[in-house]
Amino acid sequence: MSTPDNHPTAPTEVRMNRLSLNNLPTKPAVNPGELSVGIVHLGLGAFHRAHQAVFTERAAQLSGETRWGIAGISQRSAAVREQLAPQDGLYSVLTRGTDSTSIEVIGSIREVLTAPEDPDAVVARIVDNRTSVITLTVTEKGYRAASGGGLDLSDPEIQADLTGRPPRTVVGQLAAGLARRTGEPLTILSCDNLVANGPFLQRLVHEYADAAGLRGEQFEAAAFPASMVDRIVPATTDADRDEAARLLGVRDEAVVVAEPFLQWVIEDHFAGARPAWETAGAVLTADVAPWEQAKLRMLNATHSMLAYLGALRGYETIAEAVRDDELAATARELISTDVIPTLTPPDGLDLASYGESVLERFANPALKHKTTQVAMDGSVKLPVRLLGTIQDRLAANAEPASAALAVAAWMVYVARSTTVDDPQADRLKSATANAATPTALVDALLAVDTVFPKDLQQSNPFRTLLVNHVTHLTR
Predict the structure, then answer these.
(1) Dihedral (C-alpha) 135, 141, 142, 147: value to the nearest 10 degrees?
(2) Are the C-beta atoms of residues 226 and 196 closer than 8 Å to each other?
(3) What mean pLDDT comes out for the span 289-311?
């Protein structure tokens, strides 16, 4: 079985009760034993396994290249390693459409490391000259950015890395790896929902390196392309594992669930060799920005709106929320009235049709994407998903009523929740502790400058909209 210290092709114990290369009736598209590691992925969650790893597997099959196996890095716990190690690194993707379900086995992840347990091994993988590409899905909060957009040098974990411990933050890992690396320059490809995520990550890494005194030629040679990713990947349940077992004939503890839709748009700006992802359907383009903005402001913003409004109405899943006629109409209003006027569509994308397709995907009853899961980390999601739209509409002397409703729903959700799953949870709960009226709640949260920029804090039209919406939502 593959472990952090074992070569992925080492002999493995066959466990007939769990998925293994030796007991699968359906094999992966590429023999995993033939793959060498050429990609390091930071943030080995379900989304990566249902997205970039799938693209990489299919690209290896179609191109015949075997150098693009993945070393996956779990940034927090050993849970993913414990799932994958007894399964030869294999897992399945259970794809659920409205009317059909299918399953495929993925073998592109060849090694799993857990950063808190062995941070030196993570950096060593980045340094290894066989590694050409680093990809990341660490969520917005994993970048540890300050509200102004730069690195939060006061963050306790950043501070701990800077004092000399083996780095455990992603920017610390990347900077340490770049500082020690020789040979071919790296491509570092962010796949998180952040505006201009490539240049943003480059700024953070350079700021960390400056603070740590680590700068060198590899920092200048590295490429940081932007990218946009899209696939709905809800949390896996025991029922999902049971269904995967019925379809496979063996137990897969690492199964991930996804919708059929799969999209990856990548800026064609690489420092060296890369997988032929375009053979698997990825779009390589000179400008990701129009795709990225459409997705963030239409899909992600609507997702957040439905999560907060749906949770306030007692809906457990996004699909239940979007089947509420009133909430569906509210989501359409957000897209058509507030979002579309702020966008420049990329070639080939009809924004109105895209908006309808978003709602159709959300309504898929087979995807039990929980409202509480989508509602997580609102303090870092709102600025990139909703606040830009609000700023643009206000600048055009328009009233962003629908977008403001989504923000108001977040405010009420934060105030009513007994526990808030958010990196700023303590500050948010402290701010709302004594907010006894809608106006007090709006003023308390609007004053959180790590969420709201000064122009929105000082906007009377925006504040008025929020007070009206919060008043309505709290009746």
Answers:
(1) 100
(2) yes
(3) 96
Distance between CA atoms of 57 and 45, rounded to whole angstroms?
17
The DSSP bridge pattern shows strands 91-96 and 101-106 to be antiparallel
Q: How confident is the model at residue 17 (pLDDT cuts 50, 70, 90)?
A: low
Query: Rounded distance, CA 383 to CA 271, Å?
Result: 30
Q: Parallel, antiparallel, or unpaired for β 37-42 and 69-74? A: parallel
Report the alpha-carbon distance of residue 205 to residue 447 in Å, rounded: 29
242: helix, coil or strand? helix
The per-residue pLDDT for range 410-438, each reduced to its tens digit, is 999 999 998 899 999 999 999 999 999 99
d(CA 107, CA 20): 10
Going by the DSSP 8-state scheme, the letter that residue 383 receives in this structure is: I
Rama region for 291: left / alpha / beta (φ>0; ψ in -120 to 50; rest): alpha
Alpha-carbon dihedral sign for residues 44, 47, 49, 52:
negative
Task: Pull the structure tokens for residue 171.
Answer: 């920017």
* Half-sphere exposure at residue 168, Cβ-oriented, CA atoms within 13 angstroms: 16
- What is the token pair recorded at 393? 């509409």
Distance between CA atoms of 262 and 28, rounded to whole angstroms?
Answer: 19
* pLDDT tens per residue across span 336-379: 999 999 999 988 889 999 999 999 999 999 888 999 999 999 99
Q: Which of 264, 290, 301, 300 is nearest to 351 (CA)?
A: 290
- Which residue, among 280, 87, 76, 308, has the nearest Cα to 169 in the 3D structure? 76
C-alpha 225/C-alpha 289 separation (Å) is 11
Alpha carbon separation from 227 to 18, 111, 194, 252, 376 (Å, rounded): 35, 24, 9, 30, 22
The helix (run of H) or strand (run of E) holding residue 199 is: helix 197-212
Q: Which H or E run includes 160?
A: helix 156-162
pLDDT at position 7:
36
Q: Of 410, 388, 406, which Cα lies nearest the Cα of 297?
A: 388
Cα separation values, 336 from 265, 289, 329, Å: 24, 20, 10
CA distance 329 to 431: 32
Q: Token pair of 144, please? A: 């540890």
Q: How far is CA 348 from CA 201, 338, 342, 475, in A?
A: 28, 21, 18, 44
CA–CA distance, 301 with 292 (Å, rounded to integer): 12
The residues pairing with 229 across neighbouring beta strands, listed in sequence order, are 264
